Amino acid sequence: MTPPARFSVQDVDVRELSGLAELALTPTLARAIWGETDRPEDAVLLHVVQHIGGLVAGAFDAQGALQAYLVGLPTSEAGVQHSHRLGVHPGARRQGLGERLKRFQRDWCLSRGVHEVRWTFDPLLLANAHLNIHRLGATVRTLLPDYYGAMSGINAGLPSDRFEAHWQMDSERVEQQLNGQPETQSWPTTPALHPLEDRWPADLADAVAVEVPRDFAGLRRDDPELALDWRLKARELITTLFGLGYTLTDVNLGRSQYLFTRAPSHSGTPC
């Protein structure tokens, strides 16, 4: 499954996968994305997911090769879907396929009365956070420590901490983000908090920036000890902010920073 060096995202066909033959394309793609030890869902299970009201969608290039896919599961809450998987072939990244799939998911869900999608993602993967928060308009107010337990493949060796994203797809915020007119976010002029440095201010403003690694995947590969330090100390800092009423509302790629905001009625200092 080798994608072309470049292809126009406009030539990509994003749609639901149809039949067992197309669903059977996903395990090979999953292993290309998450490693050979990944244990993807088989075609029969994905067929059942579709049958009970879930979504299995894919992005096919002009040659008919599956380059990305998404799995959304029904939940016990009316009007809420859980987005279980979203992956793009390593050779087809940075071409907008992830966003195309999420926009397809939104249209699919809203047409069926589903207004919110939730999913988890690694708190330290900056590009993923930028897509989820800045471009799509999701927000985060929960960090789930070691959510999946010990993992293999590209995620091996570190606690599997995850953010839980909430995507209120019919909200004004999401409409603005998707239309390229994001709500105005006031980034603080004070220095960003750094998880590896012990320098909390006496009082926290209602908008707080937090430094994150520019390339955590590379750090995880090249310096596992430092990556673990980032994981544990970022967990402590971000969990404290959530406990003080903050929500992750924006991501700045250039600065490698997250923006956490809270309503002015909240107050408090870290313990």
**Rounded Rg:** 19 Å
Distance between the termini: 51 Å
Kindly state the number of beta strands: 10
Strand order of the largest sheet: 1-2-3-4-5-7-6
Structural class: alpha+beta
- DSSP helix count? 8
Please describe the biggest sheet, giving its number of strands, its sense, and whether it closes into a barrel: 7 strands, mixed
> What is the chain-wise order of helices and strands?
EHHHEEEHEHEEHEHHEE
Shape: globular
Unreliable stretches (pLDDT < 50, length at least 5) are: 1-5
Which bin fits the share of residues in helices? 25-40%
Average pLDDT score = 90
**Strand percent estimate:** 15-25%
Q: Could you characterize the architecture of this molecule?
A:
This protein has 271 residues and is α+β, with helices and mostly antiparallel strands. It is built from eight helices and ten strands. It has helices at residues 19-23, 26-34, 43-51, 97-110, 126-135, 172-178, 216-222, 224-243; strands at 13-16, 55-60, 66-74, 80-88, 116-121, 139-144, 162-168, 207-211, 247-252, 257-261. The strands form two sheets. Strands 1-2-3-4-5-7-6 form a seven-stranded mixed beta sheet. The chain has a three-stranded antiparallel beta sheet with strand order 8-10-9. Helix 7 (216-222) packs across helix 8 (224-243). The longest helix is centred in the C-terminal third of the chain and has 20 residues, at 224-243. The protein is globular, with a radius of gyration of 19 Å. Residues 1-5 have low confidence and may be disordered.
